[in-house]
Design a protein that fits this description.
223 residues; alpha+beta; Glucose Permease (Domain IIA); 2 domains; eight-stranded antiparallel β-sheet; three-stranded antiparallel β-sheet; elongated
Amino acid sequence: MGNIRLWVAKEGVPFILLAALPALAAWILDGVTLAVFLTLLTLWVVWFFRDPERFPPPGEHRAVSPADGKVIDIQRLCEREFIGDKGTKISIFMNVFNVHVNRIPLSGKIAHISYRPGKFFSANLDKASQENERNALILETPAGQKVLFIQIAGLVARRIACRVNEGDRVERGERFGMIRFGSRVDVFLPESAEILVHLGDHVKAGESVLGELKTEKRETIKS
């Protein structure tokens, strides 16, 4: 794609072509009813893979949502598998009507990526976090804090796309991948982070603030 900016996510181009070619063939063969149906289907696929611009709000320590959707779980726990530390997990459920492009919560370096195939339970179930296909990314901020975010496939979603690699430097709000056709993203913020969302909130990737990371304050030297 080079530097060409598409209105749709590049991961969706093959699906759009797959839908558009039969529609075109139907119009050529003069099958009007079928052609109209396939054209509408193609338009829906284009709409599903839409990729609008997003603009993160000010504040380099404010973690933005990696996904569009609804906050379905917020809980404090010890994440043992990847981070090995206490923190807050925020789960965001994406239905088929949401934008599915995923974005980086905070600027920093991708320290680790771990992909694991799995099952395809409905993404709004608790067991989806552990048993479904997933892709976990650990980001290390310039202050040395670690933030974990996990792409989780759902009942219909069967393919996770990730555009970044270990060692990449990334910017807050930058696109890093997507999950096709309904899914979920879990985010683990450090224990000291101030959580700024609530259960049931609807959030936008790259724009809605999930929480603010706290860094050590330097003592002010008085003259």
